[in-house]
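Hello forum,

I keep getting stuck at the same step: I have a sequence, I want structure tokens, and every attempt I make locally crashes halfway through. Rather than fight my setup again tonight, could one of you with a working pipeline run this one for me? It's a single chain of 353 residues.
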Amino acid sequence: MSAYWDRLKELPLRIEDYALERLELDVSSGFHRVSTVIRLRGAGTDGVGEDVSYDTPDHDRLQEAGPVLPLAGEWTLGSFCDHLEGLDLWAAGPAEREASVLYRVWAYESAALDFALRQKGVSLHEELGIEPRPVRFVVSLRLGEPPTMAPLQSRLNAYPALQFKLDPTTDWTPELAAEVAATGAVESLDLKGQYKGSIVDVEPDPELYKLLLMTFPSAWLEDPHTGSAEIDALVEPVRDRVTWDAIIHGVEDITGLPYPPKMVNVKPSRLGGLRSVLAAYAYCEEHGIAMYGGGQFELGPGRGQIQYLASLFHPDGPNDVAPGGYNEPSPGPGLPDSPLPVAVEPVGFRWSA
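Reply #2:
Ran it on my machine without issues. Output:
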């Protein structure tokens, strides 16, 4: 366990009951996003977390079952997390996909952290002894089907200083890639090579890699395909630009990577429990591995919580934690530029929108 967890695990919390709140919104990747806020209540206050499972039926079943888990009682943060491990968080029906199991753990444990801090009357950064700093962010974006400059250009027209993490697909043409590169606004390319059986899978295509490596000579390369001799050979000379995301669920995944990474995406919901997240932060700090954070199209408090963590552990990384307004199909005016000013609330694990 990390020293960070040691500073938090004895926080007391008293839970009287909890509530489930449904959120939904059409977002920029062309789907209807649903999430669920977990609100723990007691001692005159509350604590919130967000279940970011991607499949609407997961949220439907959770709402239909209601707040039936035996969470009431006197706990420490550590004993509550231990108790949670023994509960079936999916009693209303199995998760549509395996990744969602950890997403729900994060929802309850982040709510418990917020709740315990608020009951004590302190903020997360005070309890950890870390000063939050402004958060540099990028905007994650796909260019449509078929891909065009329009989604990128419309955002740059409104917010010229934006930087992006783009999802290249096999139907990118050399002309489109050159036009995108000419903006100078691409910090990283998410190759989706480690996703299996998802709607965003990208087939391994050496020609796409050749195009991207030629056209974007300094961009970070997230989650390249592995196991293809031709792609492995293309990536080998530039592996100092490779970062990892989808396969990172804890320290053991970082140590098990094909080669020591320069940077990884520590995505709290993907790592699940607080102990796993804090252990990953500590390991990367100890071994000189740069970090950044990633979002999951959070609609509620979850987005602020990952911005909060980014402000403490990796404020200068290419954080995929842009304010939620950038996820809308047509982002409106008045959104903050990067870096995001520190907006921690006086108590708890919350970041003001």
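The two ends are 32 Å apart (CA to CA). If your local run keeps crashing, start a new thread with the error log.
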